[in-house]
Design goal:
Layout lengths: L1 H12 L15 E3 L2 H10 L5 E5 L11 H4 L3 E3 L3 H7 L3 E5 L4 H9 L4 E4 L5 H15 L2 H20 L6 E4 L5 E3 L4 H8 L3 E2 H5 L4 E3 L2 H7 L3 E4 L17 H6 L5 E3 L3 H4 L6 H18 L1
Parallel strand pairs: 1-2, 1-4, 2-3, 4-5, 6-8, 6-10, 10-11
Antiparallel strand pairs: 7-9
Helix pairs in contact: 2-6, 6-7, 7-13, 8-13
């Protein structure tokens, strides 16, 4: 492996294009990020996508976990991706910098995608992925599916309830996060907006209780062993504010990444709000 990498380095140093370089649509694509994995799986032509990250097969974070089994798995290591000889590598902006830098030094084309914080950002990433893969028509179809889903949500009135997202270690998400955009699409109001929370921040339990949200949203993932990060869920004040009629569990996989499937989180929130309002009558 070391000899192979050295040979490629000498080739690049000599000013010779790598053998996998191409000016057309890429034919051997490797994705290193669970969100780019899923966009690529939704958009790529048959046989175009070669490898996805190991997280793509985790049903806790990937909607397309079953689909991921069709592809070679990578762990974001430069050496394994080098041996795949892709003509395009796609990654998230938080993907391991050392791997990305090494691949670029070796002459690979690496394109990075930032996490989406709005549905406009979701559209932009779908459109860009379609352009990179030469699949613009398929990208337009996905954007149309997303817009139709947003229109459907907007057309159905939802009780104007307040929502608190609450995660391990008392974290919540506010303005500029995809989860906040999902809450707005569902026609609900996040308490993070009232509290001026931007991005991901800690939400002290006292503030959660004082905000008295109509719904408290948790993820759906469970863990076999106790952890200090989950002690906030065991506090008596939390169990009181998150009573059974207020508690909503939304699978994390629906709003970690942006795509038409993200709308499922909004639909689940809308259904929970309608059920809560009906029970209060």
């Amino acid at each position: 492996m070391a000899r192979a990498i050295l040979a490629v380095s000498l080739t690049i140093a000599a000013g010779i294009s790598p053998a996998w370089a191409t000016d057309g649509a890429p034919s051997r694509v490797v994705s290193m990020n669970v969100c780019t994995d899923q966009l690529a799986m939704l958009l790529a032509a048959e046989g175009q996508l070669h490898s996805v990250s190991h997280l793509a097969g985790d049903p806790g974070v990937s909607v397309l976990a079953d689909e991921a089994g069709r592809y070679v798995v990578n762990h974001g290591l430069g050496e394994e991706i080098f041996l795949m000889q892709p003509d395009l590598v796609i990654a998230g902006t938080f993907t391991t910098r050392a791997t990305i830098d090494m691949l670029r030094r070796l002459g690979f084309r690496v394109e990075e995608f930032a996490p989406e914080g709005t549905f406009e950002g979701v559209r932009a990433n779908i459109r860009r992925m379609g352009e990179l893969l030469g699949r613009q028509q398929r990208a337009d179809e996905l954007i149309g599916e997303l817009d139709a889903g947003l229109a459907e949500l907007a057309s159905e009135p939802t009780p104007p309830l307040s929502v608190a997202l609450y995660s391990a270690n008392s974290y919540t998400s506010g303005d500029g996060s995809l989860s906040n955009a999902v809450i707005e699409a569902a026609g609900l109001q996040s308490i993070a907006d009232r509290l001026g929370i931007v991005g991901v921040q800690r939400l002290p339990l006292e503030q959660l209780v004082l905000s008295n949200p109509d719904l408290v949203v948790l993820g759906e993932r469970t863990y076999d062993r106790p952890a200090l990060a989950h002690e906030n869920f065991r506090h008596p004040a939390f169990t009181a504010i998150a009573s059974q009629d207020r508690l909503v569990r939304i699978p994390d996989r629906y709003w970690i990444c942006g795509a038409p499937f993200t709308l499922e989180a909004a639909r689940l929130l809308r259904d929970a709000a309608n059920a809560h309002a009906e029970a209060a009558r």
